[in-house]
Each structure stands twice: as C-alpha cells, then as structure tokens.
Amino acid sequence: MKWTTFLFLALTPLTCALLRFQCSQLVVQRLDPLVEPGLIPSSHVHQIVGGNSFNATMDPKKDMPGESTCTTCSMAEDFSNYWTAVLYFRARNGTYKRVPQLSQITGGVGGITVYYMSDALYDTAQKSKVTAFKPGFRMFIGDVTAKTKADAERFRQLTYTCMQNSGTRAPESLSLPNTTCPYGIMANVRFPTCWDGVNLDSPDHMAHMSYPSSGTFESQGPCPATHPVRMPQVLFEVVWDTSKFNNKAEWPTDGSQPFAWSFGDATGYANHADYVFGWKGDALQKLMDTPCVVNCPTAKTQGNAAMNKCTQKAVVDENIDGWLPSLPGGHQAYYS
Which UniProt keywords apply (predicted)? Predict the structure, then answer.
C-alpha cells in the first residue's frame, strides 16, 4: 500500500527537509518508561517501535544509539523510540479484542509512519535554522484524563481519520469515528516544535516544549519567547485495521462506536503518544539541513528484512491478543 503525502508536499517549500519513513513493530506490552518509569507492568498496553534498547526505565544519561543493537525503522541511524496506546474492539457481549495495524512494510507487523519536518518559513520568522533534538531529549503529547471535546481541544494536534481507502487524509476529527471505516482508522500525532532551549525533559514531559505562538500547528508563526528554539516537527501516523470489526451486528446495541484505547477511553479524546530521541551523532541535524522531500539522498537506510528482524521479547507475560473480559490491567471502556 502507499499513502499519499500531498498535504505535506503542498505545504512544504523546496528549501526544507521532510523525512517520511516506516518503523516496524518492536514490541507490544505494558511498559511506559516516560510516564511510569520502572513500573512493571505499567498501567496500560503500548505498541513500541524503534531501537531495541527500549526498557522500563530508559535512563536519560545513557547513550541511546550506543545501547541499541538494531532499530525497527528504515532510517538506519534512528534508534529513537516512539510509542502509543493500543486500540481494542469491544464486542456486544462485553469482551475485547486487540485491533491489528496496517503495515507498509513487506512482511512487517504493525508499526507506524514517522515524519520529521523542517520548514523554511521558520527561518523567515526568526532567522534561525531548525535545531535537532539533543541526546537525552524526550517528550509526551496528549491528556490521558481527557473526557470531553473541550478537553481534547487543548491538543487539537491529535486527530483521527476514517479511511475510505488507502489515500484518505481528511477530514480529521478529535473523537473516534462513530461509523464504519472501510480501510481503518488513522490516528495522527503532531508533536510541538518549540523548545525552551534548556530542559531535555520536564515533570509532565510537555512544559519544555510548545507549539508556535501563531499560525498553524504544522509550521509557520514564530516560537513564543518562553520556547525560542525551533525543533523539527515530529508526526506519526498509525492506521488501525478496524475493517475486521465493521459488522454492526457486533457493535453495542445503543449505537455507540465500539473501539477503545487500551486504558479504556472510548471517546478518543484521551489519545496520547511518547517520544524518546535516539538518533546517532548529528545524523538528524544533517538531514534537517538538507533540502529534500521524503527521500533524502544523504540518509542511511535499511531494508525491510533488517527492520522486521529487530524485535524484542515482552517482559510482561500476559494475554493481550485473545478475546478478553477486560482490557489488560483491568480497564473497562468508558465514554465520559
């Protein structure tokens, strides 16, 4: 399959860098070293991609590229870790089944599509180039406690698309679709682009980052004075293959949509994602400095076989794939 990138290409000047690449699945389990470091198991299930040094603590003082021996990403120098919650289907009888993901990787299982975007308009606004993340950098986006649309509007950069076919990019919504989606549901996560220039992390894993003070959340507009350093826009897409659950006879009798995140949210408002930087040396900075779109000639890449070979055995031994009476961790779906 091939998902089009026309939206980003239309918005992106030729003088910018736009990386788009695939990452296969590393592991699916209840670990969250950013929000719940050291907790085994963490509160809910995540799907993780990237470097195989992923673990329950992820000490920021350690060299991520040096700790990893392989990566599930096609960018061979990217040992970062990217993770999201997992989507489950709730059947009419109250049992749950994990929703698989569509993969663009031949022979791959699950995974995500990652973007790093550097826009020349940043330079126009502040006369400074985009600065790559630093070793030890990490961030989080979203609100796991969000229960209303007003809550979700604080993070309008996290959206869903009900895909009619492989090329569907719009419209986007803040809530999970309440109708069947022939090709599945795409979850889009767009991280902030403005850094305070000092802290590699913060207590809530968000305060050290900000979106531009004006303009769209994709780009444009200057960074606020509190967060003056322009960073790449990290975006990832996850396509959940909900097509396997489109039989309305199996949906709740009240007509509500049947999908819930692994921590129970069935509205979609509590969507969230985590990022731990792990590019080797100055590889990312060089790519951000290179005028290229999608296929950057200086990027070191690896093939599907190497990506798929990089996997990790789950340290949390539990059933996450069968028909379950509750979500792993004992959660139940909730709508408000």
Answer: Signal
For 55-64, write each residue's pLDDT tens digit: 999 988 887 7
- Say if 125 falls within a structural domain: yes
Which residues touch 318 (CB under 8 Å, ≥6 apart)? 30, 41, 328
Instruction: Answer yes or no: are the C-beta atoms of 315 and 127 closer than 8 Å.
Output: no
Please give the residue range of the domain that contains residue 56. 6-309
Look at residue 160 in the predicted model and tell me its pLDDT: 97
CB atoms within 10 A of CB 266: 22
Query: Residues 62-102: pLDDT tens digits?
Result: 877 889 999 999 999 999 999 999 999 999 999 999 999 98
Q: What is the pTM of this model?
A: 0.92
Query: Cα–Cα distance between 78 and 332 in angstroms, integer?
Result: 36
Q: For residue 118, what are the contacts with CB-CB under 8 A and spacing of at least 6? A: 16, 17, 18, 130, 232, 233, 288
For 308-319, the pLDDT digits (tens) are 999 999 999 999
DSSP letter string, 99-118: PPB--SSTT--S-EEEEEEE
Distance CA 8, CA 154 (A): 23
In a domain, 183, yes or no: yes
How many angstroms separate the Cα of 107 from the Cα of each of 25, 112, 167, 261, 333?
11, 14, 21, 26, 32
270 assigned to some structural domain? yes
Reply yes or no on whether the pLDDT at 115 is more than 90.
yes
Alpha-carbon 277 to chain mean position:
13
DSSP string, 120-159: HHHHHHHS-PPPPPPTT-EEEEE-TT--SHHHHGGGTTEE
Residue 316 forms part of a structural domain: no
Distance of CA 144 to the CA centre of its chain: 14
Number of structural domains the chain divides into? 1
- At 53, phi and psi to the nearest 5? -90, 5
